[in-house]
Amino acid sequence: MHTLIANWKLQLLAVLVSSGLSFLLTPLVRRLALRYGWMDTPSSAVKTHKVATPSLGGVAIFVSYAATLLLLRAFTQFPTGTLRSLRGLMVGGGLIFLMGVVDDLKKPAGLHFVPKFVVQSLAALCLLYFDIRIHFIKPDYLAMGLTLFWVVGITNAFNIIDIMDGLSASQAAVAAFVFMVVSLPSEELYVDFASAALAGAALGFLPWNFSNRGKIFMGDSGALTLGFLLAGVSLGSHYSKVNELGVYAPLLILLVPMFDTLFVMYLRARKGLSPFLGSKDHFALRLEKLGYSRKQIVALSAAAAALLGFCAVLVTQVSAGRAACIYAAVAIEILLVSNTLAKVEID
Fold first, then answer.
1. Is residue 347 part of a domain?
2. What's the rounded Cα separation, in Å, for the pair 88 and 126?
3. First vs last Cα of the chain: how many Å apart?
4. Core-most of 7, 38, 199, 321, by most CB within 10 Å?
């Protein structure tokens, strides 16, 4: 119990330090973006903003995340195994971050999806090298293949959902907090510390993303990095000693960005479009078409993520039968929501 309380204090400190750093660094990055022309311009019909906006907010997010973990390392004695896992996240996350920076600097065209997938796959292989992978599936080669698919999928899901101020960052913050809560009983410390630093970095960025006068976008350097780190964090907990279905809790924790990705890909395929080309089929834009303001959509999405996170905590603590009922209820609700949103006409 004493160790548990001490860990909570460290995690709270990590959230506060990371959010403070992110809040202070973001306007500095914005100044550099304005000075050197690192802007996201509305160069296509798919873009939802109207004026050129400073980008590369992901620099502040990643630097805050990494600096917080380095500070914890300097002043805290990590248990055996924790440091190795954090190195895996740092190396893989660094690759994704650098690729995201290059992609942001090459806007409006950006990088082709092929080299992006290659780098994402290499970053996922870094996780495998540090034994951050799915462990409950056998044989191992299948588990490693599914790990690569999961990491690349979640990495891109947070980029795909980044079509509205605060949407991707708020989803990342909620997911990181839930992973921290779910992993606490099992004391998976690398998950706890990484989640705390990640939640703080996303929270510190949000006020500037919402700001009118000091607005900045996180860019691919932020969205892809958040997605990758959350995918890595999701692989680090045992989730449940109560029932075997608890291992699927990450599906609930990350369901909002996963839903948007699958929803958009389905609608694009139904129109005969490539899933790799942009479109306005996102659930958030359909909610906007129904009359919701953007702030309302972000708030509703965050609330949905929090509710799903609560369900994820429940499935790790209840019997297998009750966990199955929770999964089934969520699946039915998703089908109903999908059917309703698919009927909304998008220009």
1. no
2. 6
3. 56
4. 199
